[in-house]
Amino acid sequence: MARLGEITDDDLDALLTTNVKGVVHTVQKALPLLNDGASVILTGSTTADRGRAGLSIYAATKAAVRSLARAWANELADRNIRVNVIVAGSTATPGSDRLAAQTDPEASIEEFRAGRIATIPLGRFADPIEIANAAVFLASDLSSFTTGSTVTADGGFNQV
């Protein structure tokens, strides 16, 4: 993660390879295995909507994922395959602790979390099961008329 003026080709290549090429190759390889009426769920990020310093390339790759979902929803509609994106906000996981250390090495994990919680209208990090429930909805027939959409489970962070 680097600020504008410090972004290297290695930074670009790593994020584009993981977040864009990885998604394209994974879905393409899975496509022959998907039954008609299947559900494809891609992973987005709140950063795609709310740019943060040092995360511009990451944000761009996650915006690309949302664009892929919209295009693929149209391409796969004839097979009734739904393609959606789930965007998880701050979630209490070891990954969020690693992000804290990368984002502000001077601050403790508790200080990082407190700062993030202050920006979330519901006033807390998500429990991983809350994100899983949103994914289960997208995978289930309950979302049979939902495609090309983004489901955001972020405690209101992106909406407010």
UniProtKB/TrEMBL annotation:
Molecular function GO labels: 2,3-dihydro-2,3-dihydroxybenzoate dehydrogenase activity
BP GO annotations: siderophore biosynthetic process
Record SUPFAM superfamilies: NAD(P)-binding Rossmann-fold domains
UniProt keyword annotation of ATP-binding present: no
InterPro entries (UniProt xref): DHB_DH (IPR003560), NAD(P)-bd_dom_sf (IPR036291), Sc_DH/Rdtase_CS (IPR020904), SDR_fam (IPR002347)
PROSITE patterns per the UniProt record, alphabetical: ADH_SHORT
Keywords per UniProt: Oxidoreductase
Protein family membership: Belongs to the short-chain dehydrogenases/reductases (SDR) family.
The name this protein goes by in its record: Short chain dehydrogenase family protein
Species of origin: Mycobacterium intracellulare 1956
